[in-house]
Amino acid sequence: MGDPKAFLNIPRQEAGYRPISERITDYSQVEQTLNTNSRKLQASRCMDCGVPFCHWACPIGNKQPEWQDALYKGKWKKAYEILSSTCDFPEFTGRICPALCEKSCVLKLSCDQPVTIRENEAAIVEAAFREGYIQVQTPRRNGKSVAVIGAGPAGLVTANQLNQKGYTVTLFDKDEAPGGLLRFGIPNFKLDKNVIDRRMKILAAEGIRFEMGVEVDVHHLPKGFDAYCICTGTPVARDLSIPGRELKGIHFALEMLAQQNRTLEGQTFAKDKLVNAKGKKVLVIGGGDTGSDCIGTSVRQGATSVTQIEIMPKPPVGHNPATPWPQWPVVFKTTSSHEEGCTRRWCLASNQFLGKDGKVTGVEVEEVEWTPTADGGRPTMKPTGKKEVIEADLVLLAMGFLKPEQPKFPENVFVAGDADTGASLVVRAMAGGRAAAAKIDDYLTK
Ligand SMILES: Cc1cc2nc3c(=O)[nH]c(=O)nc-3n(C[C@H](O)[C@H](O)[C@H](O)COP(=O)(O)OP(=O)(O)OC[C@H]3O[C@@H](n4cnc5c(N)ncnc54)[C@H](O)[C@@H]3O)c2cc1C
Ligand code: SF4
């Protein structure tokens, strides 16, 4: 631990976002970075707690106190070596992880100013790329082969781990390029796609075979591999089957988000296939992160207004006694996209879509009340009869994804990531990929 008293004198400093007026005119990353000196000062705030709750909260078990100390002392290479021993791709988590670790930091509990762990992680990996610490590592082959189906974060980590152990790994994906939701879900303003491309070049040079544009039927897996890992995510979005669902102008969030990311790669779409918010009143149904990504995208596309509705009540601001430290706090959250301009409302159920000439014009919503249950379980919902119409000519459904049912696979087939757990987080999918790779290695070596 570099400076045992730094946390008393140095406040938390986030790099912050680019100004709203500037960032909504482009799709580049909104988050900025600190200079090297300020970054080291931020690292010095880590107290190296006897019980590092940050480490406990991180699904991949990052050793934050160790790399914070190295970072504070300017030992960037050492910091990267410690970080990369648990995290395959810190350039992804350093940008888009919700930082479960920071919510469990002891400085979150004591003064609500946790160490900037996620940003420090991003700084370490960017320095590693810049300084050339990340080099192609070609392992000796062990003669065994593994097929990984799905090249999202879970599949990429599984492939990376097994490739480094000497397996010949083939990564299949139905999309034209690897990344899964990192590439075709998460907007560029949160994660630039050249960050993915940079890593894919290294993985390919290290020997992973990429078979893109290949949809694999998991009931008839490609022959000739010693083991398989299914990392196909959660492809089915939750629908809203209410009257008027057939009207034009109602889309799943990912239809818009994936199309926007592909457009930025230079792809074009026929006019009747475009999902674009330009000049439209947008209604996003679903108050979570996918909904928030729809807001940022709609604002950049030129929506005239954006409203986000959620059926659940507004979470408490600041502190929630139901989720005490060091748990993940279920509290009111404002993302960079929310800051960019939208109306947010809670306790609204959608009764029916309204339309004219086959096109959506609005949604009839109804206020609901939530009553807590005596046993502390899920509260019960009651419609209040207070109805109104929210006008909209583009409705985006962002209500989550269905958990896939996996068939009973033979013993050499493993499942990881969202395909295994249901929709979750990049860092959890990466943890699942590590766990699956360890199981596959165990299976193939014993
Ligand atoms: C809009 C959006 C924003 C998000 N933002 C964040 C965020 O900011 N931070 C965060 O931590 N998490 C975020 N998430 C969640 C996160 O993206 C996922 O939890 C994570 O990507 C899951 O990884 P995965 O590898 O399991 O699946 P996926 O990323 O879904 O990848 C699955 C891959 O499998 C491929 N595939 C599917 N079926 C087949 C088949 N039959 N044959 C071949 N290939 C197939 C798909 O094409 C895809 O590439 C977000 C999710 C969405 C939808
Ligand atoms: S991966 Fe997420 S939870 Fe883990 S150290 Fe990084 S920011 Fe924190």
TrEMBL record:
<dbReference type="Pfam" id="PF14691">
    <property type="entry name" value="Fer4_20"/>
</dbReference>
<dbReference type="InterPro" id="IPR023753">
    <property type="entry name" value="FAD/NAD-binding_dom"/>
</dbReference>
<dbReference type="InterPro" id="IPR009051">
    <property type="entry name" value="Helical_ferredxn"/>
</dbReference>
<dbReference type="InterPro" id="IPR051394">
    <property type="entry name" value="Glutamate_Synthase"/>
</dbReference>
<dbReference type="GO" id="GO:0051536">
    <property type="term" value="F:iron-sulfur cluster binding"/>
</dbReference>
<dbReference type="InterPro" id="IPR036188">
    <property type="entry name" value="FAD/NAD-bd_sf"/>
</dbReference>
<keyword id="KW-0560">Oxidoreductase</keyword>
<dbReference type="GO" id="GO:0004355">
    <property type="term" value="F:glutamate synthase (NADPH) activity"/>
</dbReference>
<dbReference type="GO" id="GO:0006537">
    <property type="term" value="P:glutamate biosynthetic process"/>
</dbReference>
<dbReference type="GO" id="GO:0016639">
    <property type="term" value="F:oxidoreductase activity, acting on the CH-NH2 group of donors, NAD or NADP as acceptor"/>
</dbReference>
<dbReference type="InterPro" id="IPR028261">
    <property type="entry name" value="DPD_II"/>
</dbReference>
<protein>
    <submittedName>
        <fullName>Glutamate synthase small subunit</fullName>
        <ecNumber>1.4.1.13</ecNumber>
    </submittedName>
</protein>
<dbReference type="Pfam" id="PF07992">
    <property type="entry name" value="Pyr_redox_2"/>
</dbReference>
<comment type="pathway">
    <text>Amino-acid biosynthesis.</text>
</comment>
<keyword id="KW-0028">Amino-acid biosynthesis</keyword>
<feature type="domain" description="4Fe-4S ferredoxin-type">
    <location>
        <begin position="37"/>
        <end position="68"/>
    </location>
</feature>
<keyword id="KW-0314">Glutamate biosynthesis</keyword>
<dbReference type="InterPro" id="IPR017896">
    <property type="entry name" value="4Fe4S_Fe-S-bd"/>
</dbReference>
<dbReference type="InterPro" id="IPR006005">
    <property type="entry name" value="Glut_synth_ssu1"/>
</dbReference>
